[in-house]
Amino acid sequence: MSSGDAHDTVHQDGVGRPDELDRLWTPHRMAYIRGENKPSDATAGTCPFCRVPALADDEGLVVHRGELAYAVLNLYPYSPGHLMVCPYRHIGDYTETTDEEAAEIADLTRAAMRTIRGASGAAGFNIGMNQGHIAGAGIAAHLHQHVVPRWPGDQNFMPIIGRTKTLPELLTDTRALLAQAWVE
Questions:
Q1: Among 26, 42, 21, CA closest to 77
Q2: Is the Cβ–Cβ distance between 100 and 109 less than 8 Å?
Q3: Of 93, 72, 69, 67, whose CA–CA distance to 82 is shortest?
Q4: Segment 64-69 mean pLDDT
Q5: For residue 40, what pLDDT is reported?
Q6: CA torsion angle for 174, 180, 182, 184 (degrees, to 10)?
Q7: What Cα–Cα distance (Å) separates residue 183 from each residue in 74, 94, 137?
Q8: Which range among 41-50, 73-82, 117-126 shows the weakest confidence by mean pLDDT?
Q9: 8-state DSSP, 31
Q10: Residue 7 — very low, low, confident or very high, per pLDDT cuts 50/70/90?
Q11: I want to staple 149 with a disulfide (CB 3.0 to 4.6 A). Which of 2, 36, 74, 81 is the partner?
Q12: From CA 71, how far away is CA 111, in angstroms rounded?
């Protein structure tokens, strides 16, 4: 069994016995599992959410730029179109936002929902911020609000049993679609 193959026909269980289960290899997920590109502290210079705005939109997967915040696709999405709304300012807690930042984060979140719904027919959304590592924030040093589109039946056996998520298109294609369709 080669680790480079996307699909192998002969499989072995964890102790080397052959079994009849298919494997869907996702080696790109190791960067997320290992915590690569995660800031180890609150230093703005090491933060991916601080670096992204300096990149071209297609390179940084930026969908839309506002005055105080921006919308960017999640590199490790739960579903197609999963994006995050981030303030440009390097802050880690929602209570640190100015009234203007909080308002723009809310406005961009609503615009993201309208855009995703219009571009892909999403039937619902999970919206949220994980505040601090203990609450599940992957990058706690920089505030970000998740906008996760949902469709009927989108959480089938793959993530529940197979602990795998499937995405139907490349992130760059999703970014281009949502950037073009962005609704103010």
A1: 26
A2: no
A3: 72
A4: 98
A5: 57
A6: 170
A7: 19, 25, 28
A8: 41-50
A9: H
A10: very low
A11: 81
A12: 10
The token pair at 13 is 């269980």
Catalytic position from the list 82, 90, 144, 146? 144
State the average pLDDT over residues 62-76. Answer: 95
Tell how many helices (H) and how many strands (E) occur in the chain: 6, 7
**pTM here?**
0.72
Q: Helices 171-181 and 99-120 sit at what angle, rounded to 10 degrees?
A: 110
What are the structure tokens assigned to 146, written together? 């998740």
Placement of tokens 């219009």 in the chain: 118
Q: Which domains does the chain have, with CATH numbers?
A: 1-36 (no CATH), 46-181 (3.30.428.10)
Q: Is 64 a catalytic residue?
A: no
163 backbone φψ class: left, alpha, beta (φ>0; ψ -120 to 50): left
Reported residue count of the chain is 184
